[in-house]
Task: inverse folding
């Protein structure tokens, strides 16, 4: 049995800590947030994730998961803290990683393993984390083991994918990679692939950048289709009949802590050669403004509008870097009376630009409805019910999830991202 100290009990740290506890390890879960502390001490998961409440309850009842605000001595330390980007420079903010490392330094002893799970720019484990840990007087790679083991999970499927997905253990040395692999093998059923730390960091960022670039391509197709009067959704379906083509889904942008953030790590690492990645970021970051352009054509301000969904994807409560949230912010700036609705987000969530309302209240007497997130609640909306609440029957579908014919039969003017011809003046 190994004693682990997991620093950060967020979307990755909390389920990881629980998995290790249920695999037989003694786990010290560390998070300074009063909200996280209160929830876990009451036996509740602090996040909305399928089956997480059951996992948390099992881990706490096992007696092997202990929650505290400060790290304690352990055999292994797992750092799973945020790595946001700085808004002005788009550079990675590694302050949480650095702070966690400094908190660990006084607790280190020979033979310890330190694992960084946070997604970071390539070189961080070697050039940032290792020197901080060396302040203990113990040399990473010689006296203590150090590795980067990036998470590879999809919100909404975190528990399944933590266990089943293949994992990378990128060690400062081959022995470091092996020690990390042995630890994760206690609950991971997928393959565990050993490599060096910097390659593991690059591979993780490449995975998210791949998604970002391909979503940007789909969004660019949607913009082109609007200009030439074609339904991009039909065109994508036809293109995907090709055995070697898989065009992804357009939408109001990309969000979450990974895909909207990690590509900047590569742009900043090699700005002179990352033109494609930078352009993809520009395309995806521009989609919320394009959704506002479509909304302006449908119903100009200052009338009330219902914006359905504020999370970055369906069936989660995560609003980090959410394009739907950016749409709401832009709508408020444009002077709309914004009504927000999202069944997965708590009304008291900070950072919302307008009140979060129950569905019926959000829809009542509005000039237009915009579906920004494809939550099941919104996919299954009854157009007849909506028609009985709104002032004007206008709907903007930014996710292509509504039955257009059914809504039109109920008297709605329907605008769909990628299928609504946008007339652009031609130059003389």
Result:
């Amino acid at each position: 049995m190994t004693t682990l100290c997991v620093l950060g009990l967020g979307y990755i740290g909390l389920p990881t800590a629980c998995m290790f506890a249920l695999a037989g390890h003694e786990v010290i879960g560390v998070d300074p947030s009063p909200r996280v502390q209160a929830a876990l001490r009451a036996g509740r998961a602090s996040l909305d994730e399928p089956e997480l409440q059951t996992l948390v309850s099992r881990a706490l009842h096992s007696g092997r998961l202990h929650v505290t605000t400060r790290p304690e001595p352990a055999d292994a330390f797992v750092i799973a803290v945020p790595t946001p980007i700085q808004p002005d420079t788009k550079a990675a903010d590694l302050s949480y990683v650095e702070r966690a490392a400094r908190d660990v330094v006084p607790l280190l002893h020979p033979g310890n393993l330190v694992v960084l799970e946070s997604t970071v720019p390539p070189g961080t484990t070697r050039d940032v984390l290792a020197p901080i840990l060396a302040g203990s007087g113990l040399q990473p790679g010689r006296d203590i083991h150090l590795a980067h083991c990036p998470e590879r999970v999809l919100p909404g499927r975190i528990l399944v994918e933590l266990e089943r997905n293949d994992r990378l253990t990128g060690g400062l040395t081959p022995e470091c990679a092996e020690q990390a692999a042995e630890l994760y093998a206690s609950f991971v059923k997928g393959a565990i692939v050993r490599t060096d730390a910097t390659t593991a960091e690059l591979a993780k960022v490449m995975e998210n950048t791949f998604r970002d670039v391909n979503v940007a391509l789909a969004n660019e197709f949607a913009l082109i289709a609007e200009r030439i009067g074609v339904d991009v959704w039909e065109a994508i379906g036809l293109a995907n009949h090709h055995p070697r083509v898989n065009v992804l889904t357009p939408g109001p942008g990309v969000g979450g802590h990974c895909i909207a953030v990690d590509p900047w790590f590569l742009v900043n690492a090699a700005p002179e050669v990352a033109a494609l990645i930078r352009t993809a970021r520009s395309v995806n970051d521009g989609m919320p403004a394009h959704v506002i352009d479509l909304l302006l054509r449908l119903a100009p301000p200052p009338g009330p509008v219902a914006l359905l969904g504020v999370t970055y994807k369906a069936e989660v409560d995560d609003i980090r870097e959410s394009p739907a949230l950016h749409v709401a912010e832009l709508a408020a700036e444009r002077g709309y009376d914004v009504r927000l609705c999202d069944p997965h987000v708590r009304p008291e969530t900070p950072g919302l630009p307008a009140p979060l309302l129950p569905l019926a209240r959000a829809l009542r007497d509005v000039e237009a409805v915009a579906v920004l997130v494809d939550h099941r609640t919104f996919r299954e909306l009854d157009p007849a019910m909506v028609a009985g609440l709104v002032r004007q029957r206008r709907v903007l579908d930014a996710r292509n999830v509504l039955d257009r014919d059914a809504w039109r039969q109920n008297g709605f003017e329907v605008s769909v991202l990628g299928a609504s011809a946008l007339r652009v003046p031609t130059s003389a």
User: Anything to note?
Assistant: Residues 393 and 412 are 5 Å apart (CA to CA). The radius of gyration is 24 Å. The chain has two domains: 3-199, 287-416.
